[in-house]
Specification:
By secondary structure, the protein is α+β, with helices and mostly antiparallel strands. Helices cover 18% and strands 36% of the residues. It is built from 11 helices and 43 strands.
């Protein structure tokens, strides 16, 4: 640890003393009293982050002990005796003890981060550590002068930004939002910030241990408690030793500043080993890049579909991937009993062969390890067949079980499902076997849909007959990684065009996957209690330069296509519930944007929009309109959020050489001019090139810090490239 700048004042006093300890460095200061974190100061900004009064603050940790599968007790630090407080090996160590539990926690510093670790030992051999909440940061709320500027950021799916987390919530209500890693979190952090202060709470785990990140405010509490929930296998009488560290980093201003802290660490990990531009395991189809089209297979004419798709490839001068929705035996997203595919094996094989002859690749989606037990839209005969399939395969025995001794059941989109346990032979082999059958049919792209990681809720399986640690642990993520690696190697051995993708990114799988599905064209996602959270490109900010985003089925409405391509996503056109339209029938604005995109990628844009590292957009006076942005939750409920909505959607990227590319689409019907400031460069001059589509519309030298004007015609992909000075 880099502790040259650190000093520590310890108040080592008898148990029950008012102050447990103080830890202070040149940039941080914290105080723990009576088992509570009562002060956390960002000295560089002179900001106290902890709420008061002291006696209403949460304990710095809480440990849940189980007896078998049932909760036996919850133990808070504030209810335990402080037995020791000492400095050892460059950290502050505090030892707490109660009748049934001993906890040793450590606080230290590394660079500008505070680091935290813990050992928790049950003193009753019948009890097991089941969950640890640590550290718990009981932060001020509002954090800024008024709550309207407060934000919480989660790296969940694309990225979620919660506006004013305490807004419109009665003081006596319970407000909780915890997301699970690696189940539905791409990365392992949560950030709470405003314009002038904030903190990032994160872990440096490299093995996929199960944990939750978020906030949890109880009725009548002050502030906003930020916390990590660590989850582990149940091992009665054994010490749980935290196999990674928790960290606190200070930042302010915007979510990108917090993500930058995590990105600097993540870039050193195995999942960022090779940038996409250098990845030879990713086939040329994705480096091109391609165009993805999907339609309802049951509405297609198999004799005309190859020509229709080939016309798209010709029009946009790009290879095409076709995704047939409903290829499955019983219909779209009905998992488990897949084969033979619709309408029968021979007809499907012939269609795939005809498409391959025209240069069209076929991608089939598998519903992860979910098996459908019953679908509301299905006929009685189909539901009977699904039930029979599970019985014949003994699916219930190999499914994930809850602590009640029965399979977990998930109800989603009018389907009732079980999920195969990855710790069983059937769970480990099913996806591999299904992918091999698809390859036998000529399919070259396999997508693992719906499987976002160890689920449900981070707890995997309670069935002792499966032979894995119960209920969760890093074994689940490792098993998933092994499964995908096996599928990838087998696919590549059969065809150099093989593509393996997954719904939503999981950072541990970055170097195994060739891409991931996401939806950057969507503006909002449903928050708890019907509220909306804004989607922001956190995943792109962290990992765009390592693997592409694909299958974002935007449009064919031009606004959705515009948002997807500006956010660095490979374009995908859906024809939901119908056959593919002729390319001549696409909306003119959609055609213009796609032509701009593929021409620009061949000219200048690929180092940025496909291979670039996302950055914060340089300061520009992009016009906005205050309005209610609306969307729909997965349940179909209308959700909305008041936003200052930009009239030009923009993004910014660095290429390998350090040049900066800024991209935008004007969403209005008339030209828009924005003014900005030329960013700083290594030398005193930079070149500035302006593009509309692939056409250069201006080239000049521009001193860093000088003003520029960018005029964007409506509904066209426009770009600015700032070359580094030499």
């Amino acid at each position: 640890m880099r502790l040259a700048m650190a000093f520590c004042v310890l108040l080592t006093q008898p148990a029950g003393a008012a102050d447990d300890a103080l830890w202070e460095t040149s940039g941080q200061k914290l105080r723990i009293a009576r088992g509570r974190l009562v002060s956390l100061v960002d000295k560089s900004r002179n900001v106290e982050l902890v709420a008061g009064p002291t006696d209403r603050l949460r304990s710095v940790f809480r440990v849940i002990l189980n007896n078998g599968f049932a909760k036996a007790q919850e133990v808070d630090a504030s209810a335990m005796e402080l037995r020791a407080s000492e400095r050892k090996d460059g950290e502050l160590r505090l030892a707490f003890e109660s009748k049934d539990l001993r906890v040793v926690m450590g606080v230290g510093s590394e660079g500008s981060d505070l680091t935290w670790r813990m050992d928790a030992t049950p003193l009753n051999p019948a009890l097991a550590v089941a969950e640890v909440q640590f550290p718990v940061l009981h932060l001020r709320a509002p954090l800024g002068r008024e709550g309207a500027g407060d934000r919480v950021v989660f790296p969940r799916n694309e990225g979620l930004l919660i506006h004013d987390p305490l807004a419109a919530v009665p003081a006596q209500s319970w407000r909780r939002r915890v997301h699970n890693y690696p189940a539905d979190m791409v990365a392992q952090f949560v950030g709470y910030f405003c314009g002038r202060s904030g903190c990032l709470l994160w872990t440096d785990d490299t093995a996929g241990h199960v944990k939750g990140f978020g906030f949890d405010r109880r009725p009548g509490e002050p502030g906003l408690p930020l916390l990590i929930q660590h989850r582990m296998p149940l091992e009665p009488g054994k010490t749980w030793r935290m196999p990674y560290r928790a960290r606190i980093s200070f930042f302010a201003g915007n979510w990108q500043a917090g993500a930058e802290i995590y990105r600097a660490w993540a870039a050193q990990q195995f999942w960022c080993k090779t940038p996409l531009r250098n990845r030879r395991d990713v086939p040329p189809l994705l480096h091109a890049p391609c165009l993805v089209i999907h339609s309802e297979l049951r509405r297609e004419r198999f004799d005309t579909l190859p020509d229709i798709l080939a016309a798209y490839a010709k029009r946009f001068n790009a290879p095409v991937i076709y995704r047939p929705v409903g290829w499955e035996k019983h219909g779209a997203w009905i998992g488990g009993d897949y084969f033979p595919p619709f309408p029968n094996e021979e007809a499907f094989r012939q269609l795939v062969a005809a498409l391959r002859e025209r240069g069209i690749h076929v991608a089939c989606f598998l519903s992860g390890r979910f098996w459908t037990r019953r679908a509301e839209r299905a006929s009685p005969a189909t539901n009977e067949a699904l039930k029979r399939f599970i019985e014949e395969q003994d699916g219930n025995r190999f499914a994930e079980w809850g602590p009640n001794g029965r399979p977990w059941t998930r109800k989603f989109e009018q389907r009732e499902m079980i999920r195969l346990c990855a710790g069983t032979p059937l769970g480990r082999n099913f996806l591999f076997d299904a992918s091999q059958r698809l390859l036998d049919l000529g399919v070259t792209a396999v997508h693992e849909d719906q499987d976002l990681g160890p689920e449900p809720s981070g707890y995997t399986c309670y069935n002792p007959a499966h032979g894995h640690p119960i209920p969760c642990g890093s074994w689940a993520a490792q098993t998933m990684l092994d499964c995908l690696t096996r599928i990838k190697l087998a696919g590549q051995a059969r065809t150099p065009d093989f593509i393996l993708t997954k719904e939503e990114d999981t950072e541990l799988m970055n170097m195994v996957l060739m891409g991931y599905q996401t939806r950057y064209f969507v503006r909002l996602k449903g928050d708890w209690a019907g509220r909306a959270a804004e989607i922001v490109p956190v995943t792109q900010y962290l990992y765009h330069e390592y693997l592409p985003t694909i299958y974002g089925f935007a449009g064919p409405h031009w606004q959705e296509v515009a948002r997807s391509m500006v956010m660095g996503q490979i374009p995908s056109l859906p024809f939901w519930g119908k056959a593919v339209a002729l390319v001549e029938q696409l909306p003119a604005s959609t055609v213009a944007l796609l032509e701009d995109y593929y021409a620009a990628m061949k000219c200048y844009a690929k180092p940025f929009l496909l291979y670039g590292r996302m950055t914060t957009v340089p300061p520009m006076n992009v016009p906005t309109v205050r309005r209610r942005v609306e969307g729909r939750s997965l349940e179909g409920r209308v959700i909305g959020l008041e936003l200052d909505d930009p009239l030009v959607v923009t993004s910014s990227w660095r290429d390998e050489a350090g040049n900066l590319g800024v991209f935008g689409v004007n969403l209005t019907t008339a030209a828009v001019s924005v003014r900005g400031i030329v960013p700083q460069a290594a030398d005193n001059l930079v070149g500035l090139s302006q593009y509309v589509g692939a056409d250069t519309v201006g080239v000049r030298q521009a001193p860093p810090g000088s003003a520029f004007v960018w005029t964007l015609p409506p509904r066209r992909l426009c770009g600015l490239v700032f070359q580094r000075g030499r």
